[in-house]
């Protein structure tokens, strides 16, 4: 907030306080309905979201709304129910001064310009009890009241809003046990995804070997058996035997090619030969969109993480080529302490969404499997940035 002009900070604080007053009144009027646990959690989550934005701290950001409907830990429900009376009290306590300040500024504006439109008994009053009876009073006291109250608002709104937000965060902050329970649930879910993906990958490898390599090897074995039988029957038929051996040799080369392709999908040989730097350089060089690669000092990372980064970057650049209409792309890889950060950026049209089958879901599954995080920033019109963070202090 420190980077904002004072008027913008005051305006944001004033809006926050007025909304808090409104929600406090709503809480009082609908208290029996809001005592339903799920509604209480939803109501508390919305306030926690507002407070987090007001304080501009990522640590206070709430879970997505859809997760608020999941069966929660008992502590979260109790905190949500506790927030109802706290919200009613703090909303009125912090919101009424803002309403009085803004309301009297509006009264001053009306009194300054439209005092003559009221009957003598209904004419507006400035500074609580000074009736506006003429232009002298209106032009002298009206602007003065606006200036004083505007100054009060510019000074007081932001601190009051932050104070209310801190109370909200303090009441609704998750306990250590709740955070641990959510972390365990997240790891359990990602582990299930990994097991499913692992099973699907094993079945794919089995199909590739069974339908491809094994079929070729069986055909080669049959050709060699026929060649052997033909040689035993008539050793002079060199042309027929030579043709069978030639077919068998070609079949062996094709089978070896397929086998290398299968092995490459399990663990790319280029990672073992050239390391992560060389593998990513090859991926960037092979992308149809001109790609700049920036790799900082990352030392050595676990093989499983190298494979995840390699496949994730390859998939991301494939998405750039297929969907982004980009003219340039950039891959940045760096390490800070025990966190490996990978960012893939393009200057395309944006609008990337992992719900549309663009490969982002697969990237997310790979990264989450190693307890990492994926953030996608892709506004309409671009640019698109996919940021992956993985723990490498194993």
Automatic annotation (TrEMBL):
UniProt domain Histidine kinase/HSP90-like ATPase: residue ranges: 304-394
Gene Ontology MF terms in the entry: ATP binding; phosphorelay sensor kinase activity; protein dimerization activity
InterPro entries: HATPase_C_sf, HATPase_dom, Sensor_HK_TwoCompSys, Sig_transdc_His_kin_sub3_dim/P
Gene3D superfamilies named among the record's database cross-references: 1.20.5.1930, Histidine kinase-like ATPase, C-terminal domain (3.30.565.10)
Entry annotated with the keyword Manganese: no
Record field: catalytic activity: ATP + protein L-histidine = ADP + protein N-phospho-L-histidine
Protein name per UniProt: histidine kinase
Organism: Dactylosporangium aurantiacum
């Amino acid at each position: 907030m420190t980077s904002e002009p004072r008027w913008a900070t005051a305006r944001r604080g004033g809006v926050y306080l007025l909304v808090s007053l409104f929600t406090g009144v709503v809480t009082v009027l609908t208290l029996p309905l809001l005592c339903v646990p799920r509604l209480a959690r939803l109501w508390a989550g919305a306030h926690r979201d507002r407070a987090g934005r007001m304080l501009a701290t990522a640590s206070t950001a709430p879970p997505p709304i859809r997760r608020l409907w999941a069966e929660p830990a008992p502590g979260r429900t109790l905190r949500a129910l506790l927030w109802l009376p706290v919200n009613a009290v703090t909303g009125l306590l912090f919101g009424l001064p803002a309403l009085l300040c803004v309301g009297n500024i509006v009264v001053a504006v009306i009194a300054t310009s439209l005092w003559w439109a009221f009957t003598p008994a209904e004419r507006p009053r400035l500074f609580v009890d000074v009736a506006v009876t003429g232009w002298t009073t209106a032009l002298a006291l009206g602007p003065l009241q606006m200036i004083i109250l505007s100054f009060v608002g510019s000074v007081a709104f932001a601190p009051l809003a932050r104070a209310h937000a801190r109370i909200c965060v303090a009441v609704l902050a998750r306990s250590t046990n709740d955070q641990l329970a959510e972390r365990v649930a997240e790891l359990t879910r990602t582990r299930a995804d990994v097991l499913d993906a692992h099973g699907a990958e094993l079945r794919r490898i089995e199909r590739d070997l069974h339908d491809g390599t094994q079929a070729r090897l069986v055909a080669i074995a049959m050709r060699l058996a026929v060649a052997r039988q033909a040689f035993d029957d008539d050793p002079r038929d060199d042309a027929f035997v030579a043709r069978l051996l030639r077919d068998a040799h070609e079949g062996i080369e094709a089978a070896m090619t397929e086998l290398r392709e299968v092995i490459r999908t399990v663990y790319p040989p280029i990672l073992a030969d050239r390391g992560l730097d060389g593998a990513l350089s090859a991926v960037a060089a092979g992308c149809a969109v001109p790609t700049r690669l920036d790799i900082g000092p990352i030392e050595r990372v676990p093989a499983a993480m190298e494979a995840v980064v390699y496949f994730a970057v390859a998939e991301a650049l494939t998405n750039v080529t297929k969907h982004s209409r980009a003219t340039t792309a950039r891959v940045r890889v760096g390490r800070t302490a025990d966190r490996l950060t990978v960012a893939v950026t393009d200057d395309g049209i944006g609008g990337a969404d992992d719900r549309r089958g663009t490969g982002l879901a697969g990237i997310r599954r790979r990264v989450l499997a190693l307890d990492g995080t994926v953030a996608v920033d892709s506004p309409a019109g671009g640019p698109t940035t996919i940021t992956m963070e993985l723990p490498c202090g194993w």
